[in-house]
Structure formats: structure tokens, C-alpha cells
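Researcher: We're teaching a course module on how sequence relates to structure. For the next exercise, students receive a sequence and then see the predicted structure as C-alpha cells, so they can try to spot secondary structure elements on their own. Here is the exercise chain.
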Amino acid sequence: MGHVLTAAIVTAAVFGVAKVVRDWLILRQVRAAMDAGTAQDRVRIGLRLAEALGGGQSGPSPEPPAGEGVIPPQ
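Model: And here is the predicted structure for the students to work with:
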């Protein structure tokens, strides 16, 4: 029974380390995008990040992403 507990602890540790590494890589990409973007890009990235982390508003983003503009009806 001790081997099962050890295997469970090792598996949990591996998954924990993998999550930390994944989160670090994502944050690195977000940081690079924030540094390279305009003020509006930074706001848009911040809103999406807050939404992804559960702190943002529910519903559609206030602005469409770049390249996905909405064409007003004529």
C-alpha cells in the first residue's frame, strides 16, 4: 500500500511542477505581448487575462480583437 501512496504523491508533484512551468510560459508570452503592444492592446490583453483567470466580466469582450472588426449595418 505504501507504493501506491508514494506513486500518488510523485504524480501530484509532477502535475504541480508541470502546471507551474505552463503558467510561467503563459505569463512570459503575456508579458512580451504587453511590452510590444499599444496602450489599447495592453488594456485588451488585461481584460482577457482577467476573464481567463475568473476575475473579468462575463459576456463578450468590450472590443473585438484586432483583425476581427465589426462592420456596422448600412
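Model: If you want an answer key for the exercise: The two ends are 71 Å apart (CA to CA). The first helix runs from residue 2 to 36.
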